[in-house]
Amino acid sequence: QVQLVESGGGLVQAGGSLRLSCAASGRTFSRYFMGWFRQAPGKEREFVAAISWVGVNTYYSDSVKGRFTISRDNAKNTVYLQMSSLKVEDTAVYYCAARGHGDISQALNDYQYWGQGTQVTVSS
User: Fold this and answer.
1) Which candidate, 95, 89, 16, places its Cα nearest to that of 48?
2) Does residue 31 register a pLDDT over 80?
3) Residue 80: count of CB within 10 angstroms of its CB
4) N or C terminus of the chain: which is more exposed, having fewer CB within 10 Å?
């Protein structure tokens, strides 16, 4: 089992940048596929980005491709989401998630473990 704790959220102006971190407990972090999701008020939780075990493969939603970068440091049990050129529509609670088997995925139901979320607010 793995526990996830996100940090790094906050208030930023449109066009700015933020880096989210997700710290994981457990000794087998490198065996988990990791993903970032977000949920805006009144909307369903949606996929943002995912990364494979050692970070070779990454996958992004079309809405963030070219602006966001997912990465991981297995020695630190941490996955990151670097967000640049932020837009007002990026405002949401951002969650990291872990998947213990299968392959890199954008499907919410494929992830077994979730963090509590961190708020990102982008002002105009």
Assistant:
1) 95
2) yes
3) 20
4) C
CA atoms within 13 A on the CB side of 5: 5
Query: Does residue 27 or residue 115 have the better pLDDT?
Result: 115
* Beta-carbon-side half-sphere exposure of residue 76 (alpha carbons within 13 Å): 9
88, 90, 93, 101: which is closest to 61 by C-alpha? 90
Mean pLDDT of all residues in 110-119: 96
Contact 100, 32 (CB under 8 A): yes
Q: Which structure tokens are listed for 30?
A: 């490198």
What is the C-alpha separation between 58 and 82, in angstroms, rounded? 13
> Which residues make beta-bridge pairs with 96?
36
Structure tokens at 119: 């708020």
Query: Which among 21, 19, 3, 8 is positioned nearest to 72, based on CA atoms?
Result: 21
Q: How many helices (H) and strands (E) does the chain have?
A: 0, 11
Token digits for 102? 């299968």
